[in-house]
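Now for a concrete sample entry.
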Amino acid sequence: MPLSLGLRDEENERINNILNKLMELVYVPGGMSTPHAEQLLAQMGLSVESIAEMSNDDLNSHVVKFHFDFANMEKLADMLATIPSFKEKAVSLYNFIQTESRMFSFDIFNKINNLNK
């Protein structure tokens, strides 16, 4: 069911807050493997295990289904890029953003290039 503009803004703000909290945990040793990180991911219908098991296309579909805007998709990709085992998923999500947003971003392009080195 499509969200109205007001609900979409509220949902994006909620997702944005969750991602900001997760980004703080990423830089703490063992941060993503803590119960707090799992609880935050669960609020977006994810877990570290589910991310690992998802195909790149499934992850892209998941963020669309959960109404992530492109800025929040990029934040999620930024977070995934900091975890060595999730770099491929980050690249896929960045590419998805570039394609679906129909706007070319040099910032995202550079992030993709840096991950592919």
